[in-house]
Amino acid sequence: MSNTGIQSRRDFLNLATVGAAGAAILTPAAAREARAQAAIAAVAFDGFAIIDARPVAARAEEMFPGQGRSLMTAWRTQQFGYAWLRTMGRQYVDFWKITEDALAASAAALNLELRGGRADRLMQTYLELTAWPDAVPVLQRLKSAGMKLAFLSNFTAPMLEAAVRNAGLEGLFEEHLSTDRVQAYKPDPRAYAMASDSLKLARDEIAFVAFAGWDVAGAKWFGYRTYWANRSGAPADNLGVTADAARPDLSGLAAFVGV
To answer: Quick check: is 244 catalytic?
Structure first.
């Protein structure tokens, strides 16, 4: 993993202390170019682009004062490392199990005790998450314009369903596209293919909204037009492709997809 890639994932872990970051780089020309191609009929979202995970970091700091950030950095790095290794090795387990295993390994590496139900409390936080403040009005606008909306996420379906209930997002999304369906984590092409297969649309009719730079690359490699909701102000990964548009939030998404 490159230093840039590691840093981008560390930036994610600092969300509890990071506000809106970075200047918008979505331009009118980018929006016009998107509209000049095949009309976008659907938007697929990475889970973290909609779901606000900062409460996990807050709970980690509450449990381990002064060490919560270190735990989150190790946990997230291990979480995605395990996901990618298991995909490469064809040893799939779902993202809940990945997250449990990554937490245990990270706490052990930092000599942090997870006794007294601490592991369960940290894991439970994932089922208590809600949406980022800007997400609901944007989703409602897209839905009202006739866009099909779907999660395309490493999260399990129950994790996604919990966030939808918590945030009051019922009725906005198509059936959730969890990597459990294909037993391969993003950026494996099998994961991205779920959107075009399930929604029965061509790749250029789908916009993908990424949270992480590596997910931008995976979606672009697959052929989706890609909007980066770069909420942590992370630097772009050096993977040979860039997002078609990027902002520190979802404020430019409607214009990007032409509604």
So the answer is: no
